[in-house]
Amino acid sequence: MKKYQIIIESAGSKILIRSDNKIFIDGIKKSSFLPRYIPGFSIIEKAKKNDCILDLKKGKKSFFLNYPRAIYSNSKYDDKDTISLIEFFLERAREDRGTYCIHSSSAIVEKKGVVFWGGWSGMGKTRLALALGEKYGADTYSDEKTLLDLKKNLIVGGINTAYLSKSSLIDSHEGRSFHEFSKLEGNFSIGFFVSPQIEETGELFVEKWDNNKFDWHLYEELSRKIRGTSRRFFSNTTPVDSLDSSATAQKRSNIIKRYTKITPCFYMRGREEDICNKIVELLRGLNS
To answer: Do residues 265 and 194 lie in contact, with contact meaning Cβ atoms separated by under 8 Å?
Structure first.
């Protein structure tokens, strides 16, 4: 029986997806969810070596995982299951190469990257990244996910489409719920991280986190995806096992502990304009 296949790459890591059913592979190629979910991805024709292999089968619902291989079976092509499983495998493969994915938005200001991050929605991550790009002469780089090389202190990729959930953002972008910004080529040095909270009243409040606080929160954040804490398949009924290992976790812990000693992180609470002005001021100070 003929095998259909596709190779997806993200930050140098590659996954081979195979299936006897052409519909499953075509579904991946046509997926609108793919560019909104897998950061810095590309579809390539062939590779000398793949980091992991996923077999898709048509049949009774089942899932077998033994990294670097997995078998996913379903009676029909499920776009979100398939794409999220591909990204789950790529998360482990990227970490093995030293690239980490953080739930965040980012912008390039004064040739330096600023990463907006935090564990819940509505903080203003997307809004601030877009505002810097549209009102302050900066470039919006990523939304939802950003790829980081912590050893080199670089932003190395991300998703360049913003999902606009707030009506005010949708109205300011011609009624579109998705906004695609220009893809920037190359990597960018990180100036600092910001955990924001936009409030329309009150004075700007800025707190620089100490190393231990930044270390604790960043390790927690960068451990979530590889451990599959929110990953479930088959209409969110089947949780998946962690892809983390003791060696991978220790490596991640060591890198983060070193990184948070040399890179600043700020908590900023206030109006959008005040936060943006403070960010520009701080980044200009780094470049002076």
So the answer is: yes
Determine contact, residues 159/147, Cβ cutoff 8 Å.
no
Residue with the two structure tokens 């700020």: 266
Residues 104, 124, 82, 227, CA torsion sign: positive
pLDDT tens, 62-101?
999 999 999 999 999 999 999 999 999 999 999 999 999 9
Q: Report the C-alpha gap between 250 and 46 in whole angstroms.
A: 32
Q: Which residues on adjacent β-strands are paired with residue 162?
A: 179
Contact assessment for residue 23 and residue 68, using Cβ atoms and an 8 Å cutoff: no
CA distance 218 to 130: 23
Beta strand ranges found along 33-126 (DSSP E): 41-44, 52-58, 62-66, 69-74, 100-109, 112-117
Q: How far apart are CA 152 and CA 178, in angstroms?
A: 31
Domain boundaries of the chain, sorted by first residue: 4-97, 100-227+246-287
Determine the topology of domain 100-227+246-287 in CATH. Answer: Rossmann fold (3.40.50)
- The number of C-alpha atoms within 13 Å of 235 and in the hemisphere containing its C-beta is 3
Q: What is the pTM of this model?
A: 0.93
Query: CA-based angle 272:278:279, to the nearest 5?
Result: 90
Give φ, ψ of 4 to 5 degrees.
Answer: -100, 145
